[in-house]
Design brief:
Layout lengths: L9 H47 L10 H12 L10 H4 L5 H4 L3 H9 L5
Helix pairs in contact: 2-5
Length: 118
């Protein structure tokens, strides 16, 4: 290929080369078609994953806890970490549960509806 030698039946080699170029072009077209399908599938998969992620929390076990249990959990959260702090200012000032009340409507109703959490 790096020499200037020309085979005697150059027209035969030229037609083989043209056929190979045409076959390569067909492969390129097929690859483009398949790549377009793959790109659409990847985009659709990403859209579905967003949908799945958005609804995944609906099946969380914490959603099945009754309000009474959640209230108890919130009460433990608002208690001092140990008995030594029981006589401290911590008892006089309840921890702020406003961030808990912003999780969802159900938790807000529990926090605002339970006087023992105030």
């Amino acid at each position: 290929l790096s020499s200037s030698y020309t085979p005697p039946d150059a027209s035969l080699h030229h037609s083989e080369l043209a056929a190979a170029i045409a076959a390569a072009a067909q492969y390129d077209n097929a690859i483009q078609t398949i790549q377009a399908v793959v790109d659409r599938m990847v985009a659709e998969r990403a859209r579905l994953q967003v949908h799945i992620d958005g609804h995944h929390g609906l099946y969380s076990p914490v959603r099945r806890l009754p309000p009474e249990i959640l209230c108890e959990i919130f009460m433990h959260f608002s208690e001092p970490p140990n008995r030594h702090m029981a006589n401290s200012l911590h008892v006089l000032v309840k921890p702020d549960l406003s961030h808990v009340s912003r999780v969802c409507t159900k938790w807000r109703a529990i926090v605002t509806g339970a006087p023992k959490l105030w």
